[in-house]
Each structure stands twice: as structure tokens, then as C-alpha cells.
Design goal:
Elements lengths: L2 E5 L3 H13 L3 E5 L2 H10 L3 E7 L7 H11 L4 E6 L5 H6 L6 E4 L4 H16 L8 E4 L2 E4 L4 E4 L2 E3 L3 H12 L4 E3 H9 L8 H14 L9 E4 L3 E4 L2
Parallel strand pairs: 1-2, 1-3, 3-4, 4-5
Antiparallel strand pairs: 6-7, 7-8, 8-9, 10-12, 11-12
Calcium ion binds next to loops.
């Protein structure tokens, strides 16, 4: 059964999430503090997706995210944000999260986001073409790894999916909407900004100089392109 962790100190929101995710067929683990969440994750390395509230009594959700990412690049991470928070601040601080959901959210919306993350993780099985190459990059689509000049670059699932989309479409301008749809799924109702946030992070990881990107280039007013 697919395992999901919900970290939320407000008990009514937490149980609302638990009930709905269990109904959707997930096994749900609960945590009400950051420390508890980190402990649960370390004892359950098979957690596929973690949903992290930001405002917590001990450490904030971003710190929990950072600590999970320090040892686990594969886990899908969704941040829960309060409506009052500036989305720019939230996205700017998104250190390693794959997605965010704004409160209040519907169970269907949350489930769709979680499903999308699990789909990406289970992705590529049965694919014939295993290695994608471009310049110094070699992507192995079987074990979801990326090397640049034979050095391994660690990517989150979302970063990997975006880069794979690029590598399958070299030289083609991709609209931000197209990237959103391909990576987050057709039913994604979030904002386009999440594409930019992930591109920014991806550039930091793969470009020689992220301030002057040459691999992921910006197509002004439209989207992004892989290569020139
Ligand atoms: Ca909270």
C-alpha cells in the first residue's frame, strides 16, 4: 500500500486529511510536530509522499523539508500553506519541495497532487530507451539518475520529470502551461509559478552558471527551451 505522511499540528485538519487519504486507498502516518515527522520518516523510509504544514509548534515545515531532503531525494514533498502567506515567500523558501497546496483545500485536490507524485515515481517502467544524452548530460530513465560530465547530480522527482521532458524535446520551446501539464498532470489546479520555481532550482543544479543559463534557456513571455 502506498504510504503517505501528514505533518500538521491542527488536529481537525490532520484527521480530515487522514480520513480522506485512507478513503483514497493510502496508508497514512500522522505527525503533529516536526520532530515527530522526522522520526517517523527515518523509521519508515518507504513513505512515498510527505505533506508538510509550514506553521508548527517546534521547527517549521521548510526545515523539516530540508532535513528530509538531506537524506532522501526520492520522496515526494507537498507543502501546506496558509492562504494569508505570500505565495512568493512560500515558493522562494521551497527548498526541495515538489509542490504546495493552499489551505483551505479540497480532498480531491490533495489526492490529485499525491497521485501525480506517485505516478512520477513509478513512471518510466517498461520504457525501451534507457539513456537520454545531451551535451555533457546522460539521463538514465530506468533508475532516474542524471550525470553531467560523469558526475551524478541529485534531482527531486519533479526536477527529474522536467528535465526528462526537456531532453525528449531538445531545441523546442515549451510553454510553461505545457510543462505544468506534462509534469504535474492535466488536473493540476495550482499556479504556473511552480514551474518557474523548479526551473530556477534545476538551473542551480545543472547549469555551469545559473545566472547565465545555457542549457535551460528562457523564451520570454512563453516558457523555456532545452539548448539553443
Ligand atoms: Ca499549523
Amino acid at each position: 500500500m502506498k504510504k503517505v505522511l501528514i505533518l500538521e499540528d491542527e488536529e481537525n485538519i490532520r484527521s480530515f486529511v487522514v480520513i480522506n487519504l485512507e478513503r483514497a486507498g493510502y496508508q497514512v502516518l500522522e505527525a503533529s510536530t516536526g520532530a515527530q515527522a522526522l522520526d517517523t520518516v527515518s523509521r519508515n523510509p518507504d513513505v512515498g509522499v510527505a505533506i508538510l504544514d509550514i506553521m508548527l509548534p517546534d521547527i517549521d515545515g521548510f526545515e523539516v523539508c530540508r532535513r528530509i531532503r538531506a537524506t532522501n531525494k526520492q520522496m515526494g514533498i507537498i507543502m501546506l500553506t496558509a492562504r494569508a502567506q505570500e505565495i512568493d515567500k512560500v515558493t522562494g523558501l521551497m527548498t526541495g519541495a515538489d509542490d504546495y497546496v493552499t489551505k483551505p483545500f479540497s480532498p480531491a485536490e490533495l489526492t490529485a497532487r499525491i497521485d501525480a507524485l506517485f505516478r512520477r515515481m513509478g513512471g518510466d517502467t517498461g520504457q525501451t530507451q534507457e539513456l537520454l544524452r545531451f551535451g555533457p548530460f546522460v539521463m538514465n530513465t530506468r533508475n532516474h539518475t542524471l550525470e553531467k560530465a560523469e558526475n551524478r547530480i541529485r534531482l527531486t522527482q519533479v526536477e527529474y520529470s522536467i528535465l526528462k521532458l526537456f531532453m525528449l524535446n531538445p531545441g523546442r520551446a515549451l510553454a510553461r502551461e505545457e510543462i505544468l501539464c506534462a509534469v504535474w498532470g492535466k488536473n493540476y489546479e495550482g499556479e504556473l509559478k511552480v514551474v518557474d520555481v523548479n526551473i530556477r532550482r534545476l538551473r542551480l543544479k545543472i547549469e555551469d552558471d545559473a545566472t547565465n543559463p545555457t542549457y535551460i534557456t528562457t523564451v520570454w513571455g512563453y516558457g523555456y527551451k532545452w539548448g539553443n
